[in-house]
Every structure is written in C-alpha cells, then in structure tokens.
Specification:
By secondary structure, the protein is α+β, with helices and mostly antiparallel strands. About 35% of the residues lie in helices and about 25% in strands. It has five helices and four strands, in the order βαβααβααβ. A four-stranded mixed sheet has the order 1-2-4-3. α1 links the parallel β1 and β2.
Length: about 160
Amino acid sequence: GGGSGGGGGGSGDLGGSGPGRFDRVLCKEVMHHLEDRSRFLHALRRNRLRPHARLLIVTRPQVEIDYPLWPAATAVWAAAQPAEAVLVEELKLAGFTDVHACTRAFACSVPVDQWCGLIESRFWSTFSNFTDEELRAATKEIRARSSSDPLVFEDRIVLISAQGE
C-alpha cells in the first residue's frame, strides 16, 4: 500500500533525483508492503547503494508465528508476509551478494487488555483487513481463551543481511 517507501506508492521506483547513495540501509517491516519487491531491490542496489554497502531487512516469519491471534488473522498474515527463503532469493536475483538470514526469538509478555487494544487499533497492517466488528469479536475470543494474564508468547524476528556489490 501507500507510504511503503520507494516513491510511487510502493512501486519500488528509486531512480532519478533522490536522497543520494548510502553505505547502510535498514528496511524494517516494510518488505511485505511493497507492490514489486524485485523492482525495489534492483533499483536500491543500482541507484542508492555505494560500493560494498550493506542492507539489513528486519521482518517476521511467514508462518512460524506464536502470536495470540485467531485463524482468519493468521491466514491474512501468511498470505501477506513473504517467506524468508523468498526474500533471500529475491535479493540474490537483484544482484546482492553475501546474503545471510537468521531468526531470533524472544519471550513476550503483554497484558490481555493491552494486546486486545493493540489489535483493535490495528497496530499491524494485518488487522486492516478486518472490520471493527470482526476485531471486537476476535478480541472477545482471545480474552475467552486466555488462560493467563498477561499473555505470554514468543516473538520471532527474521534478519536478512546482504551486500550491494
């Protein structure tokens, strides 16, 4: 969607005039918003990175998640989130080298009411696919099945680093 970086509403267009060239670029939780990741990655490498520049992508796993969600949200998440292997391949096809990926996990503890409030406020784009009524029903379900307060789950972050040339 819009505002996803690269100008052109997520098109990945990084050509023409712009901010210059960089030694380091961080793409944090944006890759799943780009309409054409391949075009974005090619343009980034060609037009915005200095020689030997490094790119770090920070994202979340496509399917191996532990968040207290409901089945419809999990399905939307998986459909929108690119798999780690897909991102790695796209980087290589765009000419990036020295591509490495790893997943880091850490324990999270969030009060049930706070978690449900975050969902209802659509803190992740996943939740923009649901109406207010659907989100209220989902958080009611989460509250009903919660055996503890706070909710305890494992968050997982995927880190993918690559060199521009």
